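Could someone model zinc ion with this protein?
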Amino acid sequence: MPAEPLTDFSRLCLHTITTKPWSIEEAIEHYAAAGVRGMSIWRQWLEGRDPSQCGQAARAAGLEVVSLVRGGFFPALEAEKRLEAIDDNLRAIDEAAAVGAPLLVLVCGAVPGMPLAEARNQIADGIAAVVDHASSCRVKLAIEPLHPMYADSRSAVNTMGQANDLCDRLDSPWVGVAVDVYHVWWDPELKPQIERCAAAERLLAFHVCDWRTPTIDLLNDRGLMGEGCIPIRQIRGWVEENGFAGFNEVEIFSDRLWAMDQKAFLAKIQEAYLAHV
Ligand code: ZN
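Reply:
Sure, complex below.
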């Protein structure tokens, strides 16, 4: 059964990249004014700023900081690069703690030409190297499986099944999964793997947008909810039937939508949220 329509914005979260033209200060101001209740902050938005002050400003405006995006990119051909990635993830965990985000989202990484199984081994090693620090900072790590069109260079973790397998292998309460409908909507195993994920108490985040036909850019042509073919409400039903009660995070990368007046875009997001999420 699809979920019941949403009737308010109490579980609406926006990723700062969704409104890319806005600085973090503008995002906080406009999200709060519109009644949005959560924000997931991309690391670029904290550059040149004090993360703890940004977190305080968000909370003072009535916004919960839902996650920091993003860590990951663990695999590399050279050992030195793998160590650099681990250092960068340790810093990302520190930033998440400072901004007050309980979750760091991981885009796990891949290297063109590296066998995917080897990339997954390096991802497991990379996460294992930072999980103690995550635990001591009380920041959970969310593995986000990415659509297989990104298996060459962005993530060797492409299905919920692979993300669950990786979590089983790491066996830590500080490692879980972020379900992004854009990446996993096509997977015939999606529903049982959501059930498996939730049963292990590791379903940590839920991201929404839509899949446009045709998609004209592999990265920056995501659709607003309702513009594409993803059964978003059905998938929300599956995560909620399995106990997920967190935010519905709107994460859209779109050159077309970034070119709009962002206040008008935010109003469209809220309309689409009630109609299609
Ligand atoms: Zn996502």
